[in-house]
Amino acid sequence: MKTYPYWWEFYKPYHFQNTQVENSLYDLVVVGAGYTGVSAAIQASSKGLKTLLIDQLALGEGASTRSAGMVSGGLNLGKKINLFRDYGEDIARQFIQESIGSYEYLEDQINHHHEEVSYQKTGRLVLAHSKKKFDALRQKTNLLNSFSNLQIQIIENLESEIINNYYKGGMLVKNAASVNPASLYSFFLDKALSNKVDIFSPCKLLSHQKIDQFYELRTSEGKIKTQYLIIATNGYSDKGIGNEHYNIIGVPSYIAATNLLGEEKVQKLLPKLRMYSDSKNDLYYFRPSPDHKRILFGAFPVWAYGMENSKIVKSFFQKKISLILPKIKNFSIDYIWGGKVGVTFNTLPMLKKTNNKIYVFGCNGSGVALMPYLGNQAVNMITTNQNSNLVISKIKNDKNYFKFFIIKLLPFLGWYYRFKENIENKFL
């Protein structure tokens, strides 16, 4: 069994340097070379800014090539809060429209390259693990359809979608899509290189401070000076980015890829070949591979960090896959890998400008479309010399100085939600 992402068979992250960074001077330095950072670098270089992109890991080694490749335009924006209750109808509507805008932005970027990145308009089915959650999905559907073009519908009978006794119904987002996330990343990286973006990996940001009109960055490769700074480290943020790292937690998520089942068998298990996720806090998410020959199944056994190759984790996925897809039979697992999902404490993305420095992170599980879009918006904030008109940039993200204590509690929270939601599944 392989413990690296299945997607790395299509693009494998690598270290790369096309410049020297020690004692260098730039218009803009982007820290973090995931979807957000690469997109920001592309936009900045196209506007004539001398741009440096750095990352402490290999290019694309973080969440960008480890995700499930589900593209739904940030539909889960603010999933742990009630946007309408907490921020009012006008703000909530703008949030949703902006998330839809991220989806449209991605489609525009990959225009005529759909096959290259395995982009498929599959639709996404959000499955309710209880009757109570199904009622909540009904309400959400009515609300979203009242002011968006997402073409959302309620599915009461799931027999044509997925055959099990676990889910009680679902919400189908027809416009949602799937992509090979590593191929998408490679597409963006090639674009950055063709735009003459300077890149250095590995290069870790150790600290930074503002001196006069410039930021001075202390890195593992020496000092760098820059007029503008974008920090896009998401779930891989640490103290080097400053106190804003208290805004975000890197929550471990894992995906297993089955052995080659064949197109016929996969289609019997998932007849519509969609993207699937469910309504639990301790959620499952799954999809067919782009060639429809495997099933990829994701979950959040946060206790498993660094244990991808253990029999315990393998057994966990075999049990969960059999639970959700009881007709799968006689399957094995070829890949298990983990990654960190950047989760903010209000589950909303963060786009914050202070002087000439912008923080942009917090994909909260919806990063494939949302983060390239926000990377682009961050550069627009620089080039226009003003704050973004996006509602996302106006929401306060509170720091939580108990972050590291919370990280230690994640396994216990996972077990709590697992117990609670099993009860809901059976009785509510």
Describe this structure in words.
With 428 residues, the protein is of the alpha+beta class. The chain has one domain (6-427): FAD/NAD(P)-binding domain (3-Layer(bba) Sandwich), CATH 3.50.50. Helices cover 30% and strands 24% of the residues. It contains nine helices and 19 strands. A hairpin with a 2-residue loop joins strand 18 (350-354) and strand 19 (357-361). The model has no long low-confidence stretch (mean pLDDT 91).
Structural class: alpha+beta
Under the CATH scheme, the architecture is: 3-Layer(bba) Sandwich
Given the structure, what is the number of helices? 9
**Proportion of β residues?**
15-25%
Task: Report the uncertain regions.
Answer: none
Subunit arrangement of the protein: single chain
Distance between the termini: 38 Å
CATH fold-level topology: FAD/NAD(P)-binding domain
Domain module tally: 1
Number of strands: 19
Order of helices and strands: EEHEEHHEHEEEHEEEEEHEEEHEEEHH
The level of helicity is 25-40%
- CATH top level assignment: Alpha Beta
Radius of gyration, in angstroms, nearest whole number:
21 Å
Identify the CATH homologous superfamily.
Answer: FAD/NAD(P)-binding domain
Average pLDDT rating: 91
The main β sheet shows up as: 9 strands, mixed
Morphology call = globular
